[in-house]
């Protein structure tokens, strides 16, 4: 039974009988044991009455996890309501001496957060005490710039919903880039905050319209991207946030604007921003529609998952800890479950049903069990792509399988392609291209280390399954392949890929497991009677060691030295040009193989002539 007690009559040890809200924010969850500091907070927030559990709960009130005898044995995590964190930060900032600008920005931040910040939208994204303070400090830092400050003040006066959407996008973006672990978070946060400043040049009448936009009005709205880029470029043409803002309305299938970029042609930060931008727009009140509940908004986005980078979309849901009904999840206790119910107030604590045992229970509010990852969602439909996008789509699919940890799907895709595509095309344009993209993401800090390692493990498995049935039968020409000097998990994979490409092109290969000392490499190459040595560097640190090796081999032998540069970016190649010049040539795989064929053709011609 539940009894309503006046707050002044609540005692230490009482148990809250049902959830207590302040507006849309949870103050105290059902089952919370009252302590003196909680009574003080309830009084401070003006709560006059508190629902208190009297006696044993009714049978219908027994938590489902008890009914199904599911054990929650993980460590407990205390969920920290945003409202409490906000109040704590306000108190901390009130003790600081701020100048007039800083005080105004502080007031704007806290006013905006009171309007937009709800657990029902942010889920568990703020469930780290330092995250709110981190966002606040970034806000102060970015808007210390006079131009950015004045621009945001102009936007607030021009269209208040766009201003709040920009603040919301900034908050979500700040949290998301922290969750992913990417570098340059200051630039990304600034891009999130300023992504819609082009709407300063869109008529208020269109922005405030409560009716569906006409085709002409929508074309005007789309111009806000160009307007924003032009405005920023006039202030600072070299601003690193311009490309991010310029591409935030592009889509992974090429259907976005303004340029119709596809897949990996889109800036990495823009791929994050497009997800945050859409989620914010769907879940905040707009002039033309009511907000969607967070789980419903994510369901809409999953219905259109071909528009977004699925790795980032999955990580965004992981940050929020919000998943729609029918999502298949793996929990931290390794159980595979299906989401069967999501409440609007607590979307981050869904009710789930185990696939094997059929037990149904909510995720406990102490998070002793939580979601480890999203496995699938049955609402996702296959979408056909135009033929001109086939290759890009295959690259995109393979990359997604690697990043999402889908080993079976990655192997299955490659096995299918071996029956339908020239193997050289698959190696050069699908596998090599994808590995290069993943390396680039890692170097930019856009990929968690565990996801990078998983991707490479799966790619190893893919290469092990790959059957080179189109190899040429005449393998007269032998080449020794040396890996990168670095001792890294990626080195052997790169060696496998290069080895397979050369075998497909008719070469007999001798791959080395490790990179030997220069004199040892020379001795071994001579013992195998090879004329060609190919080195596959992976990191800048490899180049100095390679320089000494190349010098020695050129001094003491007539072997042809080739360097595969597929896994180096253009800047690295230019930076180490003096080292690479010690080799006979350096190129990416297709060009490297053609050069090797040319060298062998010349050698054979000279041999016949001299004979």
TrEMBL record:
Pfam families reported for this sequence: HD_5 (PF13487)
Domain of life assignment: Bacteria
HD-GYP domain segment(s): 140-332
Matches recorded under SUPFAM superfamilies: HD-domain/PDEase-like (SSF109604)
Gene3D superfamilies referenced in this protein's UniProt entry, alphabetically: Hypothetical protein af1432
Positions in coiled-coil regions: none
Protein name: HD-GYP domain-containing protein
Species lineage: Bacteria, Bacillati, Bacillota, Bacilli, Bacillales
């Amino acid at each position: 039974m539940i009894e309503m007690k006046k707050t002044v009559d609540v005692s230490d040890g009482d148990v809250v009988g049902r959830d207590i809200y302040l507006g849309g924010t949870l103050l105290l969850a059902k089952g919370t044991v009252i302590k003196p500091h909680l009574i003080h907070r309830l009084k401070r927030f003006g709560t006059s009455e508190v629902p208190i559990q009297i006696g044993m709960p009714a049978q219908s009130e027994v938590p489902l996890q008890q009914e199904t005898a599911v054990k929650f044995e993980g460590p407990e995590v205390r969920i920290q309501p945003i409202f409490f964190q906000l109040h704590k930060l306000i108190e901390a900032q009130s003790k600081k001496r701020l100048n007039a600008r800083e005080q105004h920005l502080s007031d704007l931040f806290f006013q905006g957060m009171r309007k937009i910040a709800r657990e029902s939208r942010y889920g568990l994204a703020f469930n780290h005490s330092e995250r709110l303070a981190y966002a606040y400090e970034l806000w102060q830092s970015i808007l210390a710039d006079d131009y950015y400050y004045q621009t945001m003040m102009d936007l607030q006066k021009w269209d208040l919903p766009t201003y709040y959407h920009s603040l919301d996008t900034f908050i979500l973006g700040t949290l998301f880039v922290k969750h992913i672990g990417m570098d340059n978070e200051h630039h990304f946060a600034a891009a999130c905050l300023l992504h819609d400043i082009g709407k300063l040049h869109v008529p208020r009448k269109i922005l405030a319209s409560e009716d569906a936009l006409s085709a002409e009005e929508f074309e005007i709205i789309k111009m806000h991207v160009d307007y924003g880029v032009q405005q920023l470029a006039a202030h600072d043409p070299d601003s690193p946030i311009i490309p991010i803002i310029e591409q935030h309305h592009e889509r992974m299938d090429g259907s976005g604007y303004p340029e119709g970029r596809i897949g990996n042609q889109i800036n990495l930060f823009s791929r994050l921003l497009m997800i945050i931008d859409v989620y914010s727009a769907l879940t905040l009140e707009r002039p033309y529609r009511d907000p969607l509940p967070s789980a419903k908004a994510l369901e809409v986005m999953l219905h259109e998952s071909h528009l977004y980078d699925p790795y980032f979309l999955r990580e965004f849901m992981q940050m929020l800890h919000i998943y729609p009904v029918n999502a298949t999840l793996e929990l931290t206790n390794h159980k595979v479950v299906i989401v069967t119910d999501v409440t609007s107030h607590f979307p981050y604590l869904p009710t789930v049903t185990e696939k094997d045992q059929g037990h149904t229970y909510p995720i406990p509010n102490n998070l002793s069990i939580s979601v480890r990852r999203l496995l699938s969602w049955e609402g996702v439909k296959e979408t056909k792509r135009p033929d001109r996008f086939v290759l890009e789509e295959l690259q995109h699919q393979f990359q997604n399988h690697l990043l999402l940890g889908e080993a079976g799907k990655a192997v299955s895709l490659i096995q299918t392609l071996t029956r339908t595509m020239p193997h050289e095309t698959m190696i050069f344009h699908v596998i090599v291209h994808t590995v290069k993209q993943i390396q680039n993401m890692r170097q930019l800090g856009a990929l968690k280390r565990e996801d990078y390692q998983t991707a490479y493990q799966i790619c190893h498995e893919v290469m092990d399954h790959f059957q080179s049935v189109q190899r040429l039968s005449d393998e007269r020409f032998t080449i020794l392949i040396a890996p990168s000097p670095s001792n890294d998990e990626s080195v052997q994979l790169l060696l496998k890929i290069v080895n397979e490409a050369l075998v497909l092109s008719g070469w007999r290969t001798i791959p080395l497991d490790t990179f030997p000392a220069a004199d040892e490499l020379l001795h071994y190459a001579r013992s195998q009677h090879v004329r060609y040595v190919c080195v596959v560097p992976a990191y800048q640190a490899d180049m100095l060691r390679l320089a000494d090796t190349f010098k020695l081999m050129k001094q003491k032998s007539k072997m042809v030295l080739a360097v595969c540069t597929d896994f180096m970016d253009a800047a690295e190649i230019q930076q180490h040009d003096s080292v690479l010049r010690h080799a006979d040539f350096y190129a990416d795989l297709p060009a490297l193989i053609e050069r090797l064929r040319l060298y062998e053709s010349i050698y054979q011609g000279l041999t016949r002539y001299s004979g």
